Predict the structure.
Amino acid sequence: MLENSLPAALYIHIPFCVRKCRYCDFVSYPYNESNARLYITGLRREIELRVGGKLDKRWPLSTVFIGGGTPTCLSTAMLLEIINFIKGHFILSSGVEFTIEANPGTVDADKLSALRRAGVNRLSLGAQACTEATLGILGRIHTHAQTVAAVRQAREAGFENVNMDLIFEVPGQTLTEWQCCLEQVVALQPEHVSAYGLQLEEGTPLKEQVDSGLLQPCVEEDGLAMYRAAAEILKTAGLEQYEISNFARSGRQCCHNLVYWHNEEYLGLGPAAHSRLGGVRMSNEANLIDYMTRLNTGALPVAWSEDITPENDIFETIFLGLRMICGLDLERFRQRFGRPLSQMYPGLTESLVNKGLLERRGNHLRLTQRGLMVANEVMCEFTPTVNILDK
Ligand code: SF4
């Protein structure tokens, strides 16, 4: 049971998908009903172990995020059981952002209406691409027509906050195709878009196809052009970029992800879920059987945990803060760590500003347009190679 307080953000991982996508290395298993039932039993037990058998009133949740995997491959009844169990054990603040991830091939009008009535108020749709060719290369189970239908059904069900996830830099995808996809997505008027460059992960079928020459990877210049196209087209449509890969209408930024980017605490439940609690980072058992075995002995299913050192806390706060387009709040940083950034990294900020990679805007330090293109390199400059706390 948690000793002092709960974080204001809750993540629930649902580790099932209808079928594994060709690029995916997330923890997910092929859906079947008996494993799903087993999982729900485990999740209920984990929640009870975490908060005790009663409603925890210590800290109302401001965000709940049910992700995966594909949460919506569970039946409506199973999803409602999970949602009701959450509501029975956590206080949800009145303005809670309650997101569920969905694959367009696993929702229909009835399921979406039931979720909306149960209090889910943000739908994150894994659209990913708009042509059948690219969806096929990615190994997605859905068609673009199903994405369009899912958005319509979500609106009819009363969802006023819809995110669409997209992927670019897919082998075979052209800039023109990507621009066309963005235009089609914009026409559906989502409140939020996440656009990620494809990562070819080791061990995935897509990486093997690229490595064996069966598919040509996207070249770097095309990837940069696609990234720029996303920023331009989405901005024109009223979706402002607020994070390296995320775009939103005013007031529709994802509150749950902002918790991560501000390096604040969150509780993650379910196989492979991560938490950051009380200065400790931890991850649950990824394997469903190991997860269940731990819970069956009355133990939390934590596979590993580590204390977050002050140096790592500082680095992560900088790294995550610079992901946001508004940048790192320097005053907030000083209050959190008791010392200004400039004192911890003497000369570094100035040097990166002089190179045109960072800029000061009021109390914020942020990446420039040029810096955004090489964001990881800039962030790694702040790696704590020396004891910055001695400075
Ligand atoms: S739907 Fe998402 S989690 Fe499931 S296999 Fe595809 S990419 Fe992975």
Summary: The chain has a mean pLDDT of 93. The chain has 16 helices and 17 strands.
